[in-house]
């Protein structure tokens, strides 16, 4: 049995049910130099959906054309109005004590048609102003280039299904490196490629294309090609800027249901078909062998003359191998996995041959897709350490929702962060994981995709009934303020 699954035992089978019995972490502080930040994404906070020359994106489109797509029939037209209120946002980040702000650039705001021949100067200026404001207040920008809001004109040519998009994305990345690279040292090309491809396999996210087992592999392939092109471009043209480039990976980290070899292997497949689908090629140049083997086998059984999982060229493999300078990890909660037949044919779930569920004992929260299990974060960082040779890691998202019924009294969020950060210290000090930062999701409530404004991930509440979108600290914001002040005091 591989080492990390031995850790599963100690974390879950022994530890989870008796958390109080675990040894107290010997280190109560993070290493000096550890960066704390908070995160948002353009469509979820900016508003200004058609302001100053911005083009339309796929979330503008789907929320306008299919209001039922969103739980409360809302959209991101105004959202938190951060397009106008960014200076107040920066003051909030500063007063809590964050050292880093992870935000994303709206592609259609800077390139209304998605293409480099039509630059919207007002859009470029908005992000320059935000970056300058952050730096003037001692906060480092971490910039995501793509957080799901594809320009509609690019969707009209097939979006991530069209192989041309890799070069179109690289041209966009070139503009961002050229414009902001002197000031931005942390880049994320693609946020959650696994979520992006869900827009092509199911009805969960825009563009909601329902091409399970086909559209997801093709779009995922082009996301990886786009990332690799942007990474190599940075190395060739902008290495003097001395920044770091990665993706923010998401996925499933799983506890095996039993310790049978087939369930332990299923838990590994659960990881390889999610986080690993995209992370593995950025280290080794190609898909993990288990994906290649299973998708090829099923494609053949389905009578296809070629695999549903596309192949990289030799050149693409060379570009992809070693194409992250650190690993961005988004983590909310884990799953329990076992071997078995799953999903429709064709689909990723069927290819992975993994069944999964939540354990009944796991703490619930308002978002039905996650459970609160802090040990899962330690398990994930250990898995990444083992798979990829202990790379530098930043936890690029981590957080929990509330449903706003007692808007400022978010005790579950305090408990969530306190326990997840404790597990992160264990990962660092006891397991030797090279984790150097953590950006919470999220600094403030925002448009939570299909859940609209019904699920709130902020440590600062936003009043969507007020035209000025008044921001108010929740208890967790004050908790974080104290937590970070202590960290500063002792580091
Ligand atoms: C919205 O998307 C649909 C489907 O891609 C497309 O047919 C339609 O033209 C789009 N609407 C606008 C205003 O771009
Ligand atoms: C596979 O079949 C499709 C039609 O079903 C065809 O268009 C394609 O060229 C074939 N590919 C190969 C590699 O034979
Ligand atoms: C794993 O599950 C698959 C699908 O149900 C089944 O065919 C296979 O026999 C199982 N493997 C083991 C070792 O139980």
UniProtKB/TrEMBL annotation:
The positions making up the signal sequence are: 1-18
Name the protein family: Belongs to the glycosyl hydrolase 1 family.
Top enzyme class: hydrolase
Catalytic residue list: 397
Keyword Signal included in the entry's annotation? yes
| Listed InterPro entries | GH, GH_1_N_CS, Glyco_hydro_1, Glyco_hydro_1_AS
The record's note on quaternary structure and interaction partners says:
Homodimer.
- Mind telling me what this protein is named? beta-glucosidase
Arranged from A to Z, the UniProt key words for this protein are: Glycoprotein, Glycosidase, Hydrolase, Signal
Q: What is its EC number?
A: 3.2.1.21
GO terms of biological process kind = carbohydrate metabolic process
GO MF terms, alphabetically ordered? beta-glucosidase activity
> From which domain of life does this come?
Eukaryota
